[in-house]
Amino acid sequence: MTIALSQFNEVRLDRVSRDFGALNALRDVSLTVQRGEFIALLGPSGCGKSTTLNCVAGLLPVTGGAIWLDKSRVDTLRPEERGFGMVFQNYALFPHLNVRQNIGFGLKMRGRPKAEIDRKVDEAISLVRLGGQENKLPGQLSGGQQQRVAIARAIVIEPPLVLMDEPLSNLDAKLRLEMRAEIRRIHNQLGATTIYVTHDQDEALSLADRIVVLKDGIVRQVGTPKELYDAPTHLDVADFMGFRNRLKGRVISHENGRVLLDVEGAQIGGMARERVSTGSSAYASIRPDDLVAGEPGPNALAVTVDTIEYRGREFVGTAHSKGGLDFVFRSHQEVAPGSPIHLRADDSRVLVFAEPVQGRA
Length: 361
Ligand code: ATP
Known about the structure:
Helix content is 24%, strand content 35%.
């Protein structure tokens, strides 16, 4: 293979901040990305994912902190001096240039010899499997093909780092799955280092070696997909990892990491993910999969069913409690909307977080 990405050991964000007037879009974001890693930046809309990526790319100046490529400081360099490959949501292809010309554009701008451009463009075309489409204009390609051109264009310049901002969000569900696998294949085949922005939890879990969860411009948690899925350390991260039931209660007792909460008069046991104190407010986070319609008793809450949907092997329902808590649960049997039932979860599947202090991030 002639495409050889520039080598380095790590990219380091050191307490990077970015303000827009009074808004702190990024606050002291620190992160080290090792060569060859696939990092997903994950979080809800407005949490600062694109701002982080744009600061790394050089499209936005940082207002505090620094970005390093090994021992070279790069946040002071212009985007073209950093030479990172970028893939955007909207592809940003030149409409009047064909596939070959779009992919070769960056090399041409760098004044590379024609023979080298031809060779590298050929290789990039074959890597993204666009053989036969070389002479088409972007308008004659499908969304997935255009996204492949955008990826080829980013990697053909042999960047040390590939930055992708929600690259699949304009594709339909089936194509998204296909392109997801393609992006990982290309990353592996090239030995690339990738930072990938997404708000899609599944995409991050399936693609990334490590996930960085952002909220309000702050890094909440960094970990492998399994670490984040099994052991979120923060309420926001749990929400984002699919713990859709958030039950507010009061701590009755806690010992050795096990907590007993009073939730609307019912006793709910769980595992402490943060320090809690007796008598204080706390949240129990439970995945819909772990909250099951069943008998009254310990760890069970009385609710009224709102909706119920058949999902093949079982049912998924929504319900509310008399105190106004909302629930998503699963059930082996169909339960009629309006009927009173009990929902229960095993202690080991309930995560307990302290109530966030108002005004504290
Ligand atoms: P999304 O998933 O919706 O794209 P995001 O996590 O990528 O969201 P950013 O685009 O990084 O979020 O925005 C972070 C915060 O900074 C938001 O509150 C946003 O409104 C603000 N922001 C972003 N760009 C600007 C700008 N050019 N001027 C002012 N505020 C901005």
